[in-house]
């Protein structure tokens, strides 16, 4: 039933120079992006970066000011929402309070005058898919937030859209439930094989669910890549700072493969940039190796410091290591084999060559 055809080579969504202006605000600035058929794609960025406007253009709820927008190869520029092979799940679910769950899910099909027997069958299947079987006759206010969320999903999936658009669908849930739903949503997407385009400002959500992430800032697409690429090879400081935590070690490019940090330490990197350019090395807290003072393996740049603060997190321990020119955050695992440090301990820091990104 959930036709998981082989993915098409034609992108599910294709944008070229897609732009949206509201008076003098450029909300979306010349976006070029292809989202593959069957992909789980997250648009990620801070509030106001233009991600919702992008999603609303795909949905047909905003008309682009310029550029091209294709869904499965067809230009959809000004097609109304109900003529597009897409459906949207909104943050607030927008369920009808006076209708049963089954009636909520079947509403769109009934509006399309689908034969009664088909409606019943497809509603049953959609409800089973989101694991709400047995709750068909309840009303939305008799369900938990997570269950209401699933009703909204079932309602969006029941007419088999080619692309499902999700606008921060988990934002209203508490942390534990949200994490559970992240996993479920990902499983569900695999099962149905529908392209999901997901908008979120929550980097952890994007990293844990998406096949690829597009990071937006100020109306522009700054980087598109797999969660690993975005996290390990951020293209600039904005992306490195927005995704996860990072230390930014200031320095200057000495030659194409050497950076000289502010304190004079030389670090060898892949592509340093242009000689004389002021840059920073992005170094993730969990990629820093913390050792006894001087116990750094040969051939690695290192920094000496003192433990300034210790924060126990359960799964790990965060150390703030004070150098005489900056403070570096280090995250160590909470395992018996990893030595614990105390405030005041003299330590050295080092990292593997691939642990740093020039930003
Ligand atoms: P959030 O996470 O807060 O929803 P966002 O990244 O989704 O933010 P958008 O809602 O797309 O951002 O907004 C992008 C920019 O466009 C913002 O500066 C916003 O103020 C502006 N904007 C959005 N919708 C309208 C509108 N209908 N009229 C005027 N300006 C708008």
Automatic annotation (TrEMBL):
Q: What is its EC number?
A: 7.6.2.11
Any one GO CC term of the record: ATP-binding cassette (ABC) transporter complex
**Residue ranges of the ABC transporter domain?**
13-243
Output the superkingdom of the source species.
Bacteria
The UniProt keyword set, sorted, is:
ATP-binding, Cell membrane, Membrane, Nucleotide-binding, Translocase, Transport
Q: Which SUPFAM superfamilies match?
A: MOP-like, P-loop containing nucleoside triphosphate hydrolases
Catalytically driven reaction(s): ATP + H2O + polyamine-[polyamine-binding protein]Side 1 = ADP + phosphate + polyamineSide 2 + [polyamine-binding protein]Side 1
Which terms in the Gene Ontology molecular function aspect does this entry carry? ABC-type putrescine transporter activity; ATP binding; ATP hydrolysis activity
Q: Which InterPro entries match?
A: AAA+_ATPase, ABC_SmlMolc_Importer, ABC_transporter-like_ATP-bd, ABC_transporter-like_CS, Mo/tungstate-bd_C_term_dom, P-loop_NTPase, PotA-like, PotA_ATP-bd
Q: Does the keyword Cytoplasm apply?
A: no
Quaternary structure note = The complex is composed of two ATP-binding proteins (PotA), two transmembrane proteins (PotB and PotC) and a solute-binding protein (PotD).
The UniProt similarity line reads:
Belongs to the ABC transporter superfamily. Spermidine/putrescine importer (TC 3.A.1.11.1) family.
Quote the NCBIfam families the UniProt record gives: potA
Q: What does this protein do?
A: Part of the ABC transporter complex PotABCD involved in spermidine/putrescine import. Responsible for energy coupling to the transport system.
Q: What is this protein called?
A: Spermidine/putrescine import ATP-binding protein PotA
């Amino acid at each position: 039933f959930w036709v998981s055809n082989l993915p098409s080579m034609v992108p599910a969504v294709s944008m070229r120079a897609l732009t949206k202006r509201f008076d003098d605000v450029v909300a979306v600035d010349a976006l070029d992006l292809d989202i593959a058929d069957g992909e789980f794609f997250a648009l990620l960025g801070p509030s106001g970066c233009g991600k919702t406007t992008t999603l609303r253009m795909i949905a047909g709820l905003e008309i682009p000011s310029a550029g091209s927008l294709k869904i499965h190869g067809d230009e959809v520029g000004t097609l109304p929402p109900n003529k597009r092979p897409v459906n949207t799940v909104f943050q607030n679910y927008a369920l009808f309070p006076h209708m049963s769950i089954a009636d909520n899910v079947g509403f769109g099909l009934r509006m399309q005058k689908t034969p009664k027997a088909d409606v019943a069958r497809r509603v049953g299947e959609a409800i089973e898919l989101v694991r709400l079987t047995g709750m068909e006759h309840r009303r939305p206010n008799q369900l938990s937030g997570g269950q209401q969320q699933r009703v909204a999903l079932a309602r969006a999936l029941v007419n088999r859209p080619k692309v499902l658009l999700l606008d921060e669908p988990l934002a209203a849930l508490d942390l534990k439930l949200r994490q559970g739903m992240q996993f479920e949503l990902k499983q569900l997407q695999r099962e149905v094989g529908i392209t999901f385009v997901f908008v979120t400002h929550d980097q952890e959500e994007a990293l844990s669910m998406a096949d690829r992430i597009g990071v937006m800032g100020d109306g522009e697409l700054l980087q598109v890549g797999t969660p690993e690429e975005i996290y390990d090879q951020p293209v600039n400081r904005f992306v490195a700072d927005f995704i996860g935590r990072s230390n930014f070690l200031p320095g200057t490019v000495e030659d194409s493969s050497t950076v000289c940090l502010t304190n004079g330490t030389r670090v060898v990197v892949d592509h340093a940039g242009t000689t004389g350019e002021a840059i920073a090395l992005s170094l993730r807290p969990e990629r820093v190796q913390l050792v006894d003072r001087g116990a750094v393996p040969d051939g690695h740049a290192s920094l000496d410091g003192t433990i300034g603060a210790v924060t126990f997190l359960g799964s790990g321990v965060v150390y703030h290591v004070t150098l005489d020119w900056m403070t570096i955050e280090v995250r160590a695992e909470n395992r018996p084999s990893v030595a614990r440090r105390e405030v005041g301990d003299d330590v050295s820091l080092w990292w593997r060559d691939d642990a740093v990104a020039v930003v």
